[in-house]
Specification:
The structure is a homodimer of 146-residue chains. Chain A is mainly alpha-helical and 146 residues long. Chain A is built from six helices and three strands, in the order H-H-E-H-H-E-E-H-H. Chain A has a three-stranded antiparallel β-sheet with strand order 1-3-2. The structure holds a DNA duplex (23 and 23 nucleotides).
Chain lengths: 146, 146
DNA sequence: TATTGTTATACTCTATAACTATA
DNA sequence: TATAGTTATAGAGTATAACAATA
């Protein structure tokens, strides 16, 4: 009476398509819903900066953008008070960027706002579905990590 | 010995965060992996056009962009042979855009390429995990649809 | 001489305002 | 006169090339 132990075969290319579309829609929708106080590329840089300061070159590499572009982006973030420039102790050419308290507040606030929209939806699901999605999140993280 | 019938409680805000991040990483990674033969905003318009033709205004609304912007985008797609302009039979002001064979080929090719990367990863999962992710895709679609 | 970062310049995508043609 | 689409012009982000400062 119970289903056989082995799960049914799933057509993987089809799964890849529907799952990819679902993820893209979630990502797009969340981005769209959250108003955002800073421009997307500014937030992206800000979100990268944790406790340790980074150089302009490092940020340019991380964000897949040219050095001049990052130089401008960083200038805007400094002007807005989200970052501060610090000279490197050993190499005078380097400019180390550290996130300010305002910068951290901004990142936290934006993340909370983005999560809030999604949280409200997820709360309406059954416990079983929530558990399933939690496991799905684990699987997806493993997939893209490799 | 078996787990209780009711699923365990999941902290939803935490789930929202991890699941959102997972979806964003998948979306970003897939976009990054696929080289892309046409610019993102061109592809986005092209992918919207199914069998029925759309007007410039409709496309502008769908893509959340101004009419002049869409006018330019459409002009590029027509120039590249991806779209063709057609006069509306009843209203001379309207311009109906229909996708060409080249346009359809481009959309198909790009989708296949994007799906390929993800397919290769998903194939390595167990049947059980594939079934779980298929169900997760359904749930996510329902969540963002509303 | 090589490297880090900035400035100079150009190109692309987007937007608002003005314009043309159809209703 | 109102609407669909296009052209005119401007603003923002990015890129390559040239430059300044430091190693």
């Amino acid at each position: 009476m119970p289903a056989p132990a082995s799960a049914p075969q799933i057509p993987v290319p089809e799964l890849a398509h529907t799952l990819r579309m679902a993820c893209m829609r979630v990502a797009r929708r969340v981005r769209y819903e959250s108003g955002g106080t800073v421009a997307p590329h500014l937030f992206s840089v800000l979100a990268q900066l944790g406790s340790e300061a980074r150089t302009v070159g490092e940020l340019a590499t991380i964000e897949q953008v040219s050095a001049p572009s990052m130089s401008r982006t960083v200038a805007q973030l400094c002007e807005g008070g989200y970052l501060t420039r610090m000279a490197d102790e050993h190499d005078g050419r380097l400019v180390r960027l550290a996130i300010t308290e305002l910068g951290e507040q901004t990142v936290r606030g934006e993340r909370e706002r983005r999560d809030r929209w999604f949280t409200e939806r997820l709360e309406k699901l059954s416990d079983e579905d929530q558990v399933l999605l939690a496991r799905a999140a684990e699987l997806l993280e493993e997939l893209v990590a490799r």
